[in-house]
Amino acid sequence: MTTIRPRWEWRTFGQRFGPAEAAFATLTPGAVQESDELYLLSAAGDNVKVRDDLMDIKVLQEVGADGLQRWTPVMKAAFPLAKDEAARVIEALRLPAVPLGREAYTLDQFLDEVVAPGRTIRVVRVHKRRVRYTVDGCMAEVSDVTADGRSTRTVAIEAEDRTAVVAAVRGMGLGGYANVDYPRGLAALLDDSPARYAVIDVGTNSVKFHLGERLADGSWRTLVDRAEVTRLGEGLEASGTISEEARQRTTDAIEGMVVEARSHDALAIAAVGTAGLRAASNADAIIDAVAAQTGIRIEVIPGEEESRLAYLAVEHGLGIGGGSLVVFDTGGGSSQFTFGRSGHIDERFSLEVGAVRYTEQFGLDRGVSDERLREALDAIAADLAVLDGRPRPDALVGMGGAITNLTAVMLGLSHYDPDLVQGSVLSLAEVDSQVERYRSLDTDGRRSIVGLQPKRAEVILAGACIVRTVMEKLGQDTLTVSDRGLRHGLLVERFSA
Question: What CATH number was assigned to the domain covering residues 7-190?
Fold first, then answer.
């Protein structure tokens, strides 16, 4: 007699799976299997299907704290089904007991006489093409699935050892993806439920969160877009490390974002870190601590990649015409620059020019003298010397917390409205006016300014000085504001079909 061994299973659905695509490409594929199956879906039922002319039932026994599911096979019965076997199928589908008038049922009889009358069960014809792999001792598969004419893909990893499955999922770069079993995945596909994905951008000064919904035409609808100032880089310039207090503030913010994404049924969460984590000597320990509390591992990306994704966000979100274009994104620890023309990127680079650094170096979190302000501007200009002598671009687009806050103050927004900020034009004269305003106020005075996020009061003067210097060096009297940044570019690139 064959021993039934329950396995811990992890599965997700989608069209693309980010870094996992490359990870699977390095593995040697095993057997390729194709099958035609018939799934019986109910709102609360177990995994019930017909495959190879057998009624096949797996029962969900347990869901672990990490979201893994432990399934146990309980039936593989040939047709015609005996009456007691038919009753077990009804039980697995969570249907009310129904009178069974036959001693045995063919598949057609069972569908017509037992399943069809209640009309609460969906009968779904599914074709699968499964490519098998072995990942760290676990069974894995990547499958192309067609269900009643609709197509999707699914990745699965399973084993008897729960910890091995968790490690394999994370090792393949799938740690941010939700565990979705076949009944739920097929139901979502058939209902044309828009796929939802989240991106978390862990910056030196703030953590940004974006939750998007991919529509049938390939466009994206924003469900949530917000930021929390956590000052991850507080004291980093002097110590070279991220403090425990800054780590805890940031981790708590990320945890709240993960919970919010899961509550909206996000299929995956991608988290990336930028300048602060690039610079910190204890970055690995910080990333481990965040993963332990939130279940999400931050991927630290190079500055050049940060600038490329920001450029992608501008191309996707703003109708910038042809001609030369410079996109810059200034944050708490660094600024990214991308130079291009007509959709082609010519050059991109990242500089350690960030608002937190100059705030701490020159005391810009409070009112300062004209002389002190000039010292800060001179230091920023020196650090941006790579921009000197470049041709004046046809268009300049700016993004990041400093620029969006400068714009919100210009517009007098008591409540931030990304649609009003997106595409706004910020003039050099406006930036100069706000620099002078912030220079003359302490932190508390700045917090009373309509449009300025209170937690940015400390770093806004430094941010404004960076923006001013960039505009001056590139010969621009105005810039176009993009509310869409790194997180939007990553969403489009990683999760578009």
Answer: 2.40.320.10
